[in-house]
């Protein structure tokens, strides 16, 4: 973790008190991405009165830094090494510890279900890693100001998902189940899914059984139908 210690400061300023510079925590396990977003934030530092910028490269050090520093704004990836979408639980834990924190999820996933889950877990905004710099700047500024941010296309996809009734249902699935459902939609077998996710064959079977119960379907064929329907929805079919 790269982070400069800061002095203790109150979380809120009272009437007539000077506002302290905002502190930012960036959490991502890709050095190039981390340094790139850091430059974006540094360019905004004077305009947005940003103080120290802290960095963490994994889930554990990210949460420890958050617990110690209590930053005002967090930019967090959703996927870390082999733990796909583990950032969702990190966002949930940070928000539970500090409800007023402003979190921007920063991810390569443009799946509206994943976006919805990130927002449900406590992210105030969601930005894609392949977005142009001006979009990242807009996303950061908006979240830092305490407002929600979603790029128009993502916002439309999430709205359509919820209108068609998929949001609340698929929202009951955990990160591993979402991964497996996505692979089922692509026609992958249990064995291939197990190999792709580096889990046991039995783990995949257990997850599919759990998903059938949560989604109210009885057979694997029905579960695959849900997976394919969701895949078509995500693709705009």
Brief summary of the model shown:
With 237 residues, the protein is of the alpha/beta class.
**SSE order:** EHEHEHEHEHEHHHHHH
Percent helix range: 40-55%
Strand proportion? 5-15%
**Biggest sheet, in brief?**
6 strands, parallel
Model description:
α5 links the parallel β5 (125-128) and β6. This protein folds into 2 domains: 22-161, Response regulator (Rossmann fold, 3-Layer(aba) Sandwich); 172-234, Winged helix-like DNA-binding domain superfamily/Winged helix DNA-binding domain (Arc Repressor Mutant, subunit A, Orthogonal Bundle), CATH 1.10.10.10. The protein is built from 11 helices and 6 strands. It is of the alpha/beta class and 237 residues long. The chain is 54% helix and 12% strand.
Topology:
Layout: E1 22-27, H1 31-48, E2 50-56, H2 59-69, E3 73-76, H3 87-97, E4 102-107, H4 112-121, E5 125-128, H5 133-144, E6 149-150, H6 152-163, H7 166-170, H8 175-185, H9 190-197, H10 201-215, H11 220-234
Parallel strand pairs: 1-2, 1-3, 3-4, 4-5, 5-6
Q: Which descriptors would you attach to this protein?
A:
single chain, 237 residues, alpha/beta, Rossmann fold, Arc Repressor Mutant, subunit A, 2 domains, six-stranded parallel β-sheet, 11 helices, 54% helix, disordered N terminus, disordered C terminus
């Amino acid at each position: 973790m790269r982070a400069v210690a800061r002095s203790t400061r109150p979380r809120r300023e009272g009437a007539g008190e000077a506002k302290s510079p905002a502190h930012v925590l960036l959490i991502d396990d890709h050095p190039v991405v981390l340094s790139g977003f850091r430059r974006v934030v540094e360019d905004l530092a004077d305009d947005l009165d940003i103080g120290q910028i802290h960095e963490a490269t994994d889930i554990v050090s990210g949460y420890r830094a958050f617990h110690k520093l209590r930053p005002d704004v967090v930019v967090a990836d959703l996927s870390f090494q082999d733990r796909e979408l583990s950032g969702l639980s990190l966002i949930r834990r940070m928000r539970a510890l500090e409800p007023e924190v402003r979190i921007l999820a920063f991810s390569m996933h443009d799946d509206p279900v994943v976006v919805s889950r990130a927002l449900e877990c406590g992210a105030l905004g969601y930005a894609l890693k392949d977005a142009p710099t001006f979009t990242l700047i807009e996303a950061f500024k908006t979240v830092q100001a305490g407002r929600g941010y979603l790029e128009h296309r993502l916002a439309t996809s999430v709205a359509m998902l919820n209108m068609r009734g998929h949001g609340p249902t698929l929202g009951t699935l955990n990160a591993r189940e979402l991964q497996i459902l996505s692979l089922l939609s692509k026609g992958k077998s249990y064995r291939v899914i197990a190999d792709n996710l580096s889990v046991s064959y039995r783990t995949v079977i257990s997850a599919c059984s759990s998903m059938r119960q949560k989604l109210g379907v009885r057979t694997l064929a029905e579960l695959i139908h849900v997976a394919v329907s969701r895949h078509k929805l995500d693709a705009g079919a």
